[in-house]
Amino acid sequence: MNRQNLEVADQVQVTEAGGPEAAASPVDAGSIPVGATCGKPAQPTALPDLDLPGLDLSGRTAVVTGGSRGIGRAIALALANHGANVAVIYAGNGPAAHQVVELAQAMGVSAQAYRCDVADYDVSQEVCDRIVKDFGSIDILVNNAGIIRDNLMLRMSAADFDEVIAVNLKGAFNVTHHLMRSLLRSKHGRIINISSVSGMMGNPGQANYAAAKAGLIGMTKTVAREVAGRAVTCNAIAPGLITTDMTAALSDQARSSLDALVPLKRAGQPAEIAAAALFLASDMAAYITGEVLRVDGGMYI
Ligand code: NDP
After folding, report:
1. Residue 2 lies in a domain
2. Half-sphere exposure of 231 toward its Cβ, with a 13 Å CA cutoff?
3. CA 128, 200, 239: angle at the middle one, nearest 5?
4. What is the pLDDT of residue 21?
5. For the whole model, what pTM was predicted?
6. Which residues contact ligand 1 via a Cβ below 6 A?
7. 227 in a domain, yes or no?
8. pLDDT band at 34 (very low <50, low <70, confident <90, very high)
9. Domain of 203: which CATH number?
10. How far is the CA of 72 from the centre of ligand 1 (A)?
């Protein structure tokens, strides 16, 4: 998200506070302003070490694209921490990917890093074939690799539109397509696509990104129907504003403006997305498919 998003976010806030919704509010609020909340915003708390038998992934293998940093890193480590072997796909940041591998190996699972531009169909095929050869079988795929190239539609270049679609949407197609045979053979097949609230509600400055993330939701629901007969599930997670390198460029002012759009009044942490991914990857979610799970602090209620 860039400065332009912030400016629009500011405007949206002002409009909502004094807009027609105020009069239409079902609550006879008297002097309570629209948007008022009780108490101070909650601070993130450390996630509990979820130790439920249904979350045990021992003996399964997960592929996490974009597993070197941010949300993907947290997901790879959460899956490893619950017994899954992990193949970490990254674009170019080898040291970060290898650090995730070392941390996962220290948890007692097999882990390897693979450099791969998921937007490249042929390279993805080569890498996916190698992963299947290295690990034998794949049970869990997390399509998490993503980029942003924000700009207003008026100024967005065709190249920026294409690149975002290529990585965020076509990349998920490429990897899912190349690993599908292996996933269909698994008794616990799970596909988890990391979408975004942008793909559900739109976000000024993100026509390319929102289109890719909305497309990913359509792909999730379609694949869910296609693979259900083999007891493989396919779900999406739609994070809101999460603190990672992707959002690090936001100024403090931008961050607090966006936080103000979130009922829980704070940005989310990668571990909070990882908790949702862990659940969807586990046996506890065997009867959930084609779902889009928002993890956004209520941004898109
Ligand atoms: P980061 O920028 O922190 O990390 C991006 C990851 O994707 C890195 O591991 C990067 O690899 C990898 N990657 C980027 N391009 C490619 C590519 N072409 N091929 C393979 N890997 C690639 O992002 P986040 O952790 O914030 O985001 C992760 C996912 O969550 C994305 O899909 C994003 O759209 C989504 N999301 C994020 C939100 C947020 O607020 N942060 C909100 C909603 C959704 P490398 O380290 O090698 O560069």
Report:
1. no
2. 9
3. 60
4. 33
5. 0.89
6. 65-66, 68-72, 89-93, 96, 116-119, 144-147, 167-168, 171, 194, 196, 239, 241-242, 244-247
7. yes
8. low
9. 3.40.50.720
10. 7
